[in-house]
């Protein structure tokens, strides 16, 4: 199982994130990062899928474990707009839909913009909820005397305070064991969630909307080479968790057309 594989390796998420995924844990935001991904069934099992990737010339990057917690208001003011705020271990991220893209996959679009860091998350929350941007003039006056670590701590405190004021609390938490592979420039993640759901994600990163079509084509080519099957009605990890554990959230998202 993935659990055994994870124990057999000395990878820890905090260390692997800096080495394998440099955008995680380096203390900066990349607001223009666009992820193009599609989810597939993991029916063939981890070992067979890994062997298939390696047999086609791919590489195994890591086996990691992390915990995701998703947040929203009681009335789903973020997720009802297909916006997803989460904390992955200690890293804050928010996924925002790309204008004009209507493809959805269980609340996790096949194409979305991802913003990292508490400051960027707060800015996106303010946009979605149509709040007045926080006055940062006083921050600017003392910015030159703050260390970057101190600034990041302040940003986190501001995000947490705003979330408390807005009634944004957690509605989903689960741990994932992930086998991370690479093939033909696409990332392949084989995930086993703590609530019993397994899924394969094929992902390509791009820097602009103009690159989305090319990235989509690459995702489809890699999935075809690996003989992957569509994930079907079960959806990805988050959709499945919501269907199993969050009846009120599911009802709202079905009414809004975010989940079918």
Q: In which range does the helix fraction lie?
A: 25-40%
Strand residues, percent: 25-35%
Structural class: alpha+beta
Along the chain, the helix and strand elements come as HHEHEEEEHHHEEEHHH
Oligomer: single chain
Spans of at least 5 consecutive residues with low confidence: 1-31, 137-142
Largest sheet: 8 strands, antiparallel, barrel
Task: List the main descriptive attributes of the protein structure presented here.
27% strand; 8 strands; 260 residues; 8-stranded antiparallel barrel; single chain; alpha+beta; 35% helix; disordered N terminus
Written account of the structure:
- The protein is α+β, with helices and mostly antiparallel strands.
- Helices cover 35% and strands 27% of the residues.
- The chain has nine helices and eight strands.
- The protein has helices spanning 2-8, 13-20, 46-55, 118-128, 137-141, 148-166, 212-225, 237-245, 247-255, and strands at 34-40, 59-72, 84-88, 91-97, 111-116, 169-183, 186-193, 198-206.
- Strands 1-5-4-3-2-6-7-8 form an eight-stranded antiparallel barrel, surrounded by six helices.
- Helix 4 runs parallel beside helix 6 (148-166).
- The longest helix has 19 residues, at 148-166.
- The protein is globular and about 50 Å long.
- Residues 1-31 and 137-142 have low confidence and may be disordered.
């Amino acid at each position: 199982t993935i659990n055994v594989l994870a124990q057999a390796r000395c990878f820890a998420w905090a260390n692997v994130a800096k080495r394998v995924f440099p955008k995680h844990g380096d203390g900066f935001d990349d607001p223009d990062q666009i992820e193009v991904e599609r989810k597939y069934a993991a029916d063939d099992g981890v070992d067979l899928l890994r062997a298939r990737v390696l047999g086609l010339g791919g590489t195994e990057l890591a086996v990691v474990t992390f915990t995701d917690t998703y947040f929203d208001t009681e009335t789903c003011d973020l997720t009802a707009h297909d916006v997803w705020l989460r904390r992955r271990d200690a890293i804050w991220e928010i996924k925002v839909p790309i204008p004009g893209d209507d493809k959805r996959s269980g609340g996790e679009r096949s194409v979305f913009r991802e913003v990292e860091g508490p400051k960027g998350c707060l800015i996106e929350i303010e946009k979605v909820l149509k709040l007045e941007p926080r006055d940062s003039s006083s921050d600017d006056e003392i910015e030159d005397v703050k260390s970057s670590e101190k600034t990041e701590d302040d940003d986190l405190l501001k995000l947490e305070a705003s979330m408390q004021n807005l009634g944004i609390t957690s509605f989903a938490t689960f741990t994932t064991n992930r086998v991370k592979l690479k093939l033909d420039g696409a990332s392949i993640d084989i995930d086993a969630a703590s609530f019993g759901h397994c899924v394969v994600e094929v992902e390509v990163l791009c820097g602009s909307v103009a690159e989305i079509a090319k990235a989509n084509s690459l995702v489809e080519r890699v999935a075809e080479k690996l003989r992957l099957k569509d994930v079907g009605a079960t959806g990805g990890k988050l959709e499945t968790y919501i269907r199993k554990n969050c009846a009120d959230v599911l009802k709202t998202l079905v009414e809004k057309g975010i989940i079918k």
